[in-house]
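Backbones bend. Shown next:

***
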Amino acid sequence: MTSIKAKWMLVLLLTGTLHLAAQDLMGLTEIKQGVKTKRVSSYDPSGDNHDNLKNIKPGEKRTIFNVAGAGIIDHIWMTLSPEPNVLSRNDVILRMYWDGNAYPSVASPVGPFFGQGWNDAYLFTSAALAATPTNGNGLVSYFAMPFAKGARIEIENQTGGTINALYFYIDYQEMKTLPPQTGRFHAWYNKQLTMPVDSVENEHWMFGGNPPNKNGKENYVIADIKGKGHFVGVNYYVQAPTPYWYGEGDDMWFIDGDTLPTMNGTGTEDYFNTSWGAPKQPYASPYFGYAKVNDDIGFLGRTHIYRFHIADPVYFDRSLRFSIEHGSNNVLTLDLASVAYWYQDTAARIPSIPDAAVRRPMPLIGPTDIHRWRNEWRKSKGNDTRLWGK
């Protein structure tokens, strides 16, 4: 039975991939004028094989791409040493600056940007981003990143240790001018430890009714954008300290200043194109999937879900606020993080991202913790020998 399911998953993935490939192959028939492919990489200019940036010290910033003129970055690959169990990719910050701006339009830890949450290492496959063998150490982007008056990309080491080596390719199309109405790529990382709005973790009405949530005031914020553009995707990282299902939270979209949601969703798994809870096996398709599942007690642990709006962008003229409930009606304590991706008509300033202390993942809850809680409960009941559970 398992092999049959695996074959169907492969068929679905290949079907979506072949559709994308057909579009790309059709596009290859167009002969472009005034476009030349260029690359900036960590290549050793001496001709030797020391093809990396070495010894990026704690607190140090390194510019890895600095190009004048117009162009479109169409491929990024990078990998770092030491590996994640030694050097946290949650504390290596990636920033991108477009058109000579002093402020970044992209800011995120390297790991979460490319689809690696918490500093965990695992395989991730999608149309736009990937984390590749070995064990998610190759970080890949195929997002198009245009610029009209130059582009700069920097890495900042906030890990407290030394980045021994950084290897990278950044491929781009050099051109005289950008095509009309070309947007600028943006990405923003957020992180929050949520709390129940009324102090009771009352999922599925376990302890009575919940306060209504119509305006999304206490929702977790995935994106808060000012300007004109379209939203194209999110990597969403959930760490749950409870075995209870966390995904009843609805997605809410506020477009162009609407005070009530312009679009309402029906549950976290529904927004991510799945159903009836989180799977126990990873699932990958070009536009959505579960890159990491907890496979623990109930829904305890860490889950990475992604959705890219490549076929169905969310358009806005003046603003977009995209948020999601943490549990139904915001009733759960969850350790949430996300990276949102979108395009705007100009390179805009994004909000600052949480600092290293806020980014630090909460400790995992496991059977030992549950047993300790049970022991405290038994003590509170007088350690009666007939105590069982309820």
